[in-house]
Amino acid sequence: MTHAVADVPGAVPAPIPLREIAPWALFAGTGLLVLLYLVGLDQGVTSLVPGEMIHEFVHDGRHLLAFPCH
């Protein structure tokens, strides 16, 4: 079965300016780096947050992502 695709004149997607994407990309990149730190690098001794709460909260996720823990 084949389907014919009709070209619609003027149906070109509008480009999104980089000025509109850049703040969201910076926000997402910063958020991902913070998440990576909290899950993968927060070990207690080098922790920016005192205590073991974050370590215990992300403990299972750390093992799931193959980060060394103990």
Q: How would you describe this structure to a colleague?
A:
The mean pLDDT is 79. The protein has helices at residues 18-41, 53-57, 59-64. The chain has a domain at 24-64. It starts with 17 loop residues before the first helix and ends in a 6-residue tail after the last helix. The longest helix is centred in the middle third of the chain and has 24 residues, at 18-41. 50% of the residues lie in helices and 0% in strands. The protein is built from three helices and no strands. It is mainly α and 70 residues long.
* Count of strand segments: 0
The largest sheet, given as strand count, sense and whether it forms a barrel, is:
none
Look at the structure and give the mean pLDDT: 79
Enumerate the spans where pLDDT stays under 50 for 5 or more consecutive residues: none
Number of helices: 3
Query: N- to C-terminal separation?
Result: 58 Å
Radius of gyration: 22 Å
Shape, principal axes of CA atoms = elongated
Helical fraction: 40-55%
Strand content: under 5%
Helix vs. strand class: mainly alpha
| SSE pattern | HHH
